Structures are given as structure tokens and as C-alpha cells.
Amino acid sequence: MSEDTQVNALKTALTEIRNTCSDITHSFIFTKEGTIIAEAAQDAEIFTEKTFYPLENLMEKADTIGGLNTFLVNGDKGVVQISRINNMYLALSAPKKADMKYIQSIARTIILTIMKIFENPVSTPLKPASYPENLTAENLTGLFAGDTAQVDNEILKEWSKSLNNSRINEIEIETSDGKIARCKVKAIHEPEFKGKGIVRIPEKIYRTLEVEKGDQVKVKPRIPEGK
Questions:
Q1: What are the backbone angles phi and psi of residue 161, rounded to the nearest 5°?
Q2: Cα separation of 67 and 57, whole Å?
């Protein structure tokens, strides 16, 4: 079965878990490297990089003590539990009153069952194209702007790594109101734009998408043929 089938099965599983355990407020599966594999349908439009940032810090710290198996965070308004499933991680959040032991038991059972259906389901990270990056739009102008967008090199590297080290030459940009454009892509070189979570969009495409500076857009790689 294809990786896309695996991703869809995991998304369906998370959605059904949310339907079964109504106390769950967020749920998603991710790798140690920070690649989001799947999230429940209820969470697809509300997840942001800012949401994941504290978890990335946690994973980095966990590596120094031999890795993370289960971790529970008690907050003022709720709890977050992260647990290792094979070489991926399941994150669940719920109100403080929720029975996390029960929720965790249901979720792990369903996710493990899905994973066992597939042969070697987690040997490599799944394609991140199923979950686009949320980036901030920036107009790319100038005499040599051309028709090529720019994103951080680290993002290009992660996409390439998850696509078996394929070179990322093109991306797809989608606005909040569903407008989509495809264009070539290269890494940002100007220091003042690096590491700011932006996508520099060529003037012509910028106008076609009707975006404004600061708008959030979804950006994902166009998967090379045969991948």
C-alpha cells in the first residue's frame, strides 16, 4: 500500500478517536524531526507552527536523556500527553478533568492497529506534502525577481529528506480563500529574510493570488513524478 494510503488511514483513525473521546481538543502524529504525519480532521485548519514549537524544544531536550516515551504536561487550562508509538509520536490534549489514561488507551490501541496493517509502516518519514507549511506571504519584486518563489533552505531540506532526498524545484501556494498557484522555488539568501517563516512570492503570482503582505498561506512541495 502507498504512503498516501497510510497517511489517510492515520488521519481517519485520529478523527474517529476524536469522535469517540469527545474530551480530546487536539490530536496529531509527528516524527522526532518535527514532520507532521497526520492530524484529526477537526484540527486540520487550526494547527500552526507556533503550536508545535514547544514540542520541538521538548524533543530536543528528550534526546539528551535517551529519548521520550511518555510525557504529560499539566497546564492552567488543560493537559497535553505525548507518547511514543514505534518511531513516531502521538500528541493528545484535553481539559484537566479528562481521563487521560482512558483516552491514551483507546488512542494507542487504534493507532497501533492501523500501523500493523501496513508492512514496515514507519521505516521512513511519510511525505510532508499532505501537511503544508503555514508561511507568511512577502512580495518579491525587483528587476531580477523572475518567476521563482523563495523559502527558507531548512524547509527545502526537510521536504527533500522526506521525499527520499529528491530535489525540490516547484511548490504550490494556497491562500485562505482557496486560490492556488504553482511556481519554481529556491532558497532565501538575503539574511534579513532568513528564519522568519516567510515565502517570498514573485510579483505576478502575488497579484494572481490577491494576497497582502503578512497574509498566511499554505505552501507545499510539488512531488516529483514517480515519487
A1: -60, -40
A2: 13
